[in-house]
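Researcher: Here's a chain I'd like modeled. Treat it as a single chain, no partners, no ligands.
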Amino acid sequence: MSQNKGEAFDFSDFLMDDEFIKGISDRENARDYINDLKINHPDKAEDIELAVKVFYELKNVSKESSNSQRKNLWDKILLKRARERRIQLFRIAASFILLAGLGGSAMYFFTHDQKPAIEKFALSTNPTFDQSQLILSDGQKIIISDYESKVTYSSDGSNVIVNDSTELVQEIKPEIFNQMIVPYGKYNNLQLSDGTKVWVNSGSCLVYPPVFSGKTREVYVQGEAYFEVAEDKTKPFFVKTDQFRVEVTGTRFCIQANEKEELFTALLLEGEVSVTSSQGKLVGSEKVKLNPGQLASLKVDGKNFHVLSVEYPENYIAWKNGYLLFNEEPINEVLKRVSRFYNINIEFRGSSKPLHISGKLDLKDEPERVLKGISTIAKSNLVNENGNFVIY
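Model: Modeled as a single isolated chain. C-alpha cells:
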C-alpha cells in the first residue's frame, strides 16, 4: 500500500492500489496479506475489509451481467458506505470501473439511479436518538415526552393524531415521507394510513409515506419494529433495512436491523413472510419463506439466512407492552436485551456456572431498578461504576 500511515484515505484508495489488488488476488496468501495490512494501518481495518468484500463481489459479476445486476451491486456498495460516511461518487466509480471493466456502464449508474425513493430518503437522514419525535414531510417536528405514544394516520395520510389529543395536518405530495424516531428506553406505536399497526422499539427509526399511493406499500426500518400488517392482496407490503427486505401479505412479525451489533433478524408470529438479502439478487441466494414461530438471522456472509424455530416467540415482542419476558433464558442473553433497550453497558461477573432466568421485567422503570431485579433473581450484587453496570 503506497499511502503513508498518517494520510487520510478510505476503502476506494485500497481498491485503486495495484499492490493491494495483487495481494488479495493471491487466494493462497491473501489472508496473511490482509492481516499484515491491518497491522500497518490499524485505523483502517474497516476500510480494508470493505475493500476486500467489494473486490470479491465484483469478481463474481461477469462482464455479461445485465445492467440490472450491475445496478444492484452498485446500490449495495453505496448503501453500505452511506451508513458510515459519505464518499465522493467519482472515486467509487473509478474503483468500480477499474475492477469490473464495465466501461460505459459507469455512466449508467449516474444517469439511471433507480434506487427506490424511500431508500434514498432513509440514507439521506441521520437520526439522533436523544428524544421521541415525529417528523412530518413538511419539516414539522413533534416532540413526544411520554414514555410511550400512539400516532394514528387518516386513510389519506393528511391528518395525524398524537396520543388521541394533538391533531396535525400535512400536505400530501408524491414521494414524501414521515419519520418516527424513538430514543433508548422508550417505544412508540403507530397506525399507518392503510390500517397497519407498527410498534417501534427503543433506539430505532421508522421511515414511511403518509399514504401508500403506488402499487406496493414500503417502509424502512433502522433498529427494531413489530408489525401487524393490514391485509391487502392487491398491494403487497415490504419492510426494507440496510441488509435485507421482508415481503408480507397480512401478518404479525418483528424485524431487527441493528448495525451496531450486526444483528439482522426477522421473526414471524402469524401469517406468511418471505425474507431476501439485499445481496440475494446479486449472488442468486434463495428467497426464504418463514413459518410462524421461525426466526431468520442473516449470516455473516450477508447473503444467506439461518432459520430456526423459537420456543417462545411472544417473548421477543413483549417489549411492545412495556416489559421483557424470560423462560429459562441464559443471564447473559437477558442482560444483552436489557443493554440494547437502554443503551447501557452491563457486565456479568457472577458464577461461571450456567445461570438461567425466568420472569418479567418492567421496562418503565429506570435501568438501575431493572438490573437490581435481575441481580436479586441471580442472587448477586449490582454496582454502578460511572454509568457502567456490573453484576457480580
